[in-house]
Amino acid sequence: MPALVTPFTRDGDISEEGFRQVIDYTISKGVTGVVPAGTTGEFSYMRTEERKKLLKLTVDFVDGRVPIIAGTGMHTTDATVKMTKYAADLGCDAALVISPYFLRPADKGYYEHYATVARKGDIPIILYNIPQCTLGVLNSNVVEDLAELDAIVGIKDSSGSIPYMLELIQKLKGKMEVLCGADENFLSAVIAGSNAAIMASANVIPHIWLDIMKKVKKGKIKEAARLQRTTQTFSRMVLKFGAAPPVKAALRMLGVNAGRSRMPLNTGGTLPPEIKEEIRIELEKMGLIENITHSPVQKDIQILELLKKQGITLEDSSELKTSSFSNDTVSVGIVAGSKKGPIGQSFVRLLTTPKIGHEALTVILEPNLPIKPSSLMFPTRKIESMRQASFFYGPVQSGAAKAFASFLEAGKIPIESVNNDVAILALDIDLNARDRREITAATQQAVETALGGVWR
After folding, report:
1. What's the angle, vertex CA 24, arms to CA 21 and CA 25, rounded to 5?
2. Residue 98: φ, ψ to 5°
3. CA-CA distances (angstroms) from residue 338 to 15, 31, 341, 350, 374?
4. Which helix (H) or strand (E) holds 369?
5. What does the alpha-carbon distance between residue 336 and residue 372 come to, in Å, rounded to a whole number?
6. For 34-124, where are the E strands, in sequence order?
7. What is the pLDDT of residues 94-124, one digit of tens each?
8. Helix, strand or coil for residue 98?
9. Where are the alpha helices (DSSP H) in 312-391?
10. pLDDT, tens digit, for every residue of 273-284?
């Protein structure tokens, strides 16, 4: 079941049409229930009347297609009872009640809070343990005691602690359900005996989670584990970047008008452009959107010709050593020569007067540890996105540095060249590649082979 996001307009109002689209999308993907006004729904940013409006919209839009578990937790017990009764009167099927937050009660306070809501709420209650937000853990012994109350039917655990969840499943078996609320723990929870989940990523990929559960029930654990691995990176990004912003970004990429978040989540720093690119890549990997196809890697890079396009002319002479090599992922052209000659001047010029989109970067093994001989690298293909930049100035730079280090360690670069030469590398990469480790390895192999043509 998805912890539904709440789409907001640019002015900060609830977008009813966007909310309808989110509900329709999740139901079309097979969800067995929806959960409005939860953490991912930004309930803590809403006024009481807004939460009531959201719950009514949910009942109207869902129109009996799936059960509705309403987020009704509030700061105080009395307010929680009132919101829970309101959800019951609307026709919601159950209430998800977060533990009291900000001011933490003792164990007895937690028990009395939930017992009161269960007694007066007029609706089945699901406890909600999320200590990273409430600053207090709902201890398993308290949960055991609460499980004796007929109106309390389950607990959602979003702590992310597998030992805690396993303890709950062990102690509560036959008494009430333990629902997984930590996306990365889903497979572990299901194998251990959990039969349901309320998760942020289920706004986007409920069908994958349902498939994992079906495979586990059929004993196809390896297939389920493979599917879980395909979701891990996206799940981590959802957790790391505030749940609602990455989920909304993903839904918008799927054509669902998931709207905006409210401040302070709705800021540029919450979800940087490069993270949006990574989200798109994960959606591509999971088969939810079509891959953006880029032109293949450029073969046989002529480094001197490329430098001319940078406004730098080097006469081909015996003083310069050039080489090139390419594989399916990376192509490289290298020119090396004395730092006191024309290439040394070109080296300085590339650093001080970069061409936009082709900025040169010093090749380093790690911060403050440049490789020898001193080298620069620049992209042959103009960098037009944060994803391209993160590839080129990340795994490509790392692979190039490792190639120089390996070549030097093998004693293949003369000592006089190590101290007196500089090198300039032009590189192109296959932007259809997805695995950063494979890009690093392919770069190292290409650069190391090209170095063999420079220092024979």
Report:
1. 85
2. -70, 150
3. 64, 66, 5, 16, 11
4. strand 369-370
5. 12
6. 69-71, 94-98
7. 999 999 998 889 999 999 999 999 999 999 9
8. strand
9. 342-352, 386-391
10. 778 888 988 998
Tokens of 172: 């509560």
Intrachain domains 16-285 and 303-454 with the same fold: no
- DSSP lists the bridge partners of residue 426 as 333, 378
- Contact residues for 36 (Cβ-Cβ < 8 A; gap 6+): 4, 6, 54, 55, 57, 58, 68, 70, 71
> Looking at the DSSP assignment, which residues form a beta bridge with residue 34?
68
Pairing of strands 421-429, 330-338: antiparallel
CATH architecture under which domain 303-454 falls: 2-Layer Sandwich (3.30)
DSSP 38: S
CA distance 301 to 318: 19
Least confident interval from 16-20, 272-276, 342-346, 374-378: 272-276
pTM for this model (two decimals): 0.78
Calpha distance 30→207 (Å, rounded): 6
What confidence category does residue 435 fall into, taking pLDDT thresholds of 50, 70 and 90?
confident
When pLDDT is averaged across residues 65-87 and rounded to a whole number, the result is: 97
Enumerate the domain spans of the chain. 16-285, 303-454
The single-letter DSSP state of residue 93 is S
Q: What b-and-e string marks burial along 437-453, b requiring 16 or more CB atoms within 10 Å of the CB? A: eebbbbbbbbbbbbbee
Known catalytic residues are: 128, 156
Strand pairing of 374-379 and 361-362?
Answer: antiparallel
Q: Token digits for 324?
A: 């090139």
Closest CA to 56 of 28, 88, 96, 33: 88
Query: Is domain 16-285 in CATH 3.20.20.70, yes or no?
Result: yes
**Can you read off the two tokens belonging to residue 204?**
């986007």
Closest by Cα among 455, 335, 344, 339 to 407: 455
Is pLDDT of 316 > 80?
A: no
The answer to whether 6 and 35 are in contact (CB under 8 A) is no
Query: CA nearest 429: which of 376, 393, 386, 455?
Result: 393
Cα separations in angstroms, 189 against 102, 156, 160, 183, 402: 28, 11, 11, 10, 41
By three-state DSSP, how is residue 359 classified? coil
Residue 317 is encoded by which pair of tokens?
A: 């002479």
| Secondary structure class of 129 (helix, strand, coil) | strand
Work out the angle between the directed axes of helices 48-62 and 77-90 (0-180°, nearest 10): 20
